[in-house]
Amino acid sequence: MSLRIEQLNVAFGKTEVLHEISLDIADGEFVSLLGASGCGKSTLLKSIAGLLEARTGKIQIDGREMNGVLPEKRGTVIVFQDLRLFPHMTAGKNIAFPMSIQGIPKERQKETVERLLGQVQLTGYENRKIREMSGGQMQRVALARALAANPRLLLLDEPFSGLDERLRAEMGELVRKLHLENGLTTVLVTHDKQEALKFSDRIALMSGGRMLQYDTPQRIFKYPVNREVAEYFGRMNYIREKGQEIGVRPFDIRIVPSGNDGMVKDIVFMGETAEIRVDTPKGEVFCMLMSSELEAMDMSVGDRVGIEILRNVCVGMAKTEE
Amino acid sequence: MKKKRFAITNMILALFVLTVVLPIAVMIVWTVTERWAWPDLVPQVLSLRALSEIFRRSEALAKLFASSIMISAAVAMASVVIGTLTARALVLYEFWGKRMMYFFTVLPFMVPATVFAMGVQISFIKLGLNNTVAGVVLSHLICSLPYAVRLMMDGTAAVGDRLEEQARVLGASMGQAFFRVTFPLLVPVILSSFSMAYIVSFSQYFLTLLIGGGQVKTFTIVMVPYLQGGDRNIACAYSVIFLGITLAVFALFEKIAGRWGKNTDTEFYT
Description:
Mean pLDDT of chain A: 89
Low-confidence stretches of chain A: 318-322
Strand content of chain A: 25-35%
Strand order of the largest sheet of chain B: 1-2
Shape of chain B: globular
Order of helices and strands of chain A: EEEHEEEHHHEHEHEEHHEEEEEEHE
Number of domains of chain A: 2
Number of helices of chain A: 9
Largest sheet of chain A: 6 strands, mixed
Oligomer: heterodimer
Number of helices of chain B: 11
Number of strands of chain A: 17
Strand content of chain B: under 5%
CATH topology of chain B: MetI-like fold
Number of strands of chain B: 2
CATH superfamily of the largest domain in chain A: P-loop containing nucleotide triphosphate hydrolases
Radius of gyration of chain B: 22 Å
CATH architecture of the largest domain in chain A: 3-Layer(aba) Sandwich
């Protein structure tokens, strides 16, 4: 299933929430909509699903125009942030809901429910009441219910935001696995850059209702179109060199203990990594390195060190050179 | 500390029970009482006169029951349907004149029935609705709808449209989403607004008299003369019988509603 969005504008009353969004998603792709809260990513998801009407612009699914097509006829299923499990139904009934709407025979519904519960590692939970389940289990039921609808396009609206870190990573893996196993096309809304980088084939970075950049994780990290994109994926140093300002990521600066470019201002131990600030005539430079390297250097605050730029980020440059 | 608070709660509860049970008990005693003057604690003269008189007229009584309950049930049913739809519009949708519309739906709360009854009567006479059951039902609706709308608004706001949105993207049509998801969750509130509307309709005297013109007989219309005439035992006998029937009606409705809300094991019930 492929999705194509062209110059989509969506407004609530007089305030425009989405401006000129264009997006192309190929069959079987896993795309993340990344951005801070309030940037319009959830609105975009609802527009794709038909819960919100577009003011102008086009949404096409498999080449078919979706304007005016009702949500239930689009084949796009959302798993919402607040999960929205039906409280008056058991876990099994929740999962069977889309199938009972489609009029699938009870026997086959039961088989599918069992299979899906197995896929989300909740075998035997058919008759569990929703309020007797933990957050992680509810996520799994919501995912299974979405899959039961046989979605052409699975839309995930920050479904893991309520979970602790470990469970979050686990659910992310599960989603990726389900995506591959079921041959789905998936759009994940998230504000977590790690999540987006880790799972996506492509990332669409949004801000203020606009699409800033849409590219593969590697390219969006290496070739951000502007500073905002570059900074979303981590801190940046901007250093003037040969009359030109270049962007450098903290890990791409090597500290040379024998050199004399500046003075160590601050050292922060972060466990596996360490942060070092160096005062140079060109301004403060922020770098990161592995703690083990730091130990080997035997450096302390006040020392004079040299800095060497290993690689710079091509902010806003043509994406041709490495 | 906790035990003490428990005791206080129990006392308050006992008081509430007393305020309900005591009048009913007194009413039951009155059905077989001929004379019970102050300051005696027990009736002086007992008799079955009131009960036998009522049962002698059992055919009229049955007719009275039927019309009274039918009118109130019709009012309650219509209130619930209109209330649910109005509440949906007011809670879930944005439209021009929404605040004005809300004001008009609760206006009868603020204006006494006696004030608008005249206007209603004149309009109904023109429409040919005066002295008809339909007219009485319509006029009762004016009083019961604000309660139904208010109650349904709270219920609708609590359930929201989030679950319906979810149902829609899972493939349900608008109607399916409402009847499979929202409706079962609303059953407890629907039950409350049905009861409320029923009671409001049941206790209307002035409107029933004015619009029904004495042709449409309900429980209250028949009761008032007995109370005024000092025939307290007959009035009490009527009341007790009606109390029983009303309870039976409510039990029946709860049972019907329970079939939809069978699995509704939600916060509403706990």
